Amino acid sequence: MPEVIFPGPEGRLEGRFTPAPRPRAPAAVILHAHPQAGGTMNNRMVQLLHKDFVRRGFATLRFNFRGVGRSQGTFDNGIGELSDAAAALDWMQQIHPEAEVTWVAGVSFGAWIGMQLLMRRPEVRGFLSISPPANMYDFSFLAPCPASGLIVQGLADEVVTPSAVQKLVDKLRTQKHITIEHKEIPGANHFFENEMDELFKVIDDYLDFRLDPDCPIR
């Protein structure tokens, strides 16, 4: 997957991009965990998400938020990082303008950014939210949530309380016209270090369902 440098709000952003194998293929943007807690686009889970979407024929981009790796700028408590994510989506749409569907996948802090992005970009039609920090950040902007998606939580998460994520899920499930799939994995910590296989079994089952041409969720 080739390295790419594209313009962001505070200078260049560094990413890895795999082009789509066909016109009108779906697109996916993957957002990493908190930059000040070691999150980068090269974290294991982010790389595996990238490979999973590529295997399914997506045009796929992961990138470093500002101040991480070769990306310019400094950490901006989520405000600038949301702008970075929007710039990444803009860049990918210029490279792959025929995408009929776009997905966003986020890990922890990246899940919070990703769900803000889908509120602002109607072309985002599906999301994967892994360990969303529902007890640390305000998710009330999801009113209403515009897209269906999957939320996955580890029951041994030492950072995010499963009860906070359950409360978020319960709130989203009261909304009409979307479907929220919620899976909890016993024994898994915040980054599913010892349960990565179980995590990707959940993700793959969900993507198999959503990407089926006969899926009732659109």
Write a structural description.
With 218 residues, the chain is an alpha/beta fold. It has one domain (3-211): Alpha/Beta hydrolase fold, catalytic domain (Rossmann fold), CATH 3.40.50. Helix content is 31%, strand content 23%. It is built from five helices and eight strands; from the N terminus they run βββαβαβαββαβα. An eight-stranded mixed β-sheet has the order 1-2-4-3-5-6-7-8, with helices on both faces. α2 (79-95) crosses α3. The radius of gyration is 16 Å and the shape is globular. The mean pLDDT is 96.
Helices and strands, in N-to-C order?
A: EEEHEHEHEEHEH
Give the CATH class.
Answer: Alpha Beta
Poorly predicted residue ranges: none
Radius of gyration over all CA atoms, rounded: 16 Å
Strand element count: 8
Strands side by side in the biggest sheet? 1-2-4-3-5-6-7-8
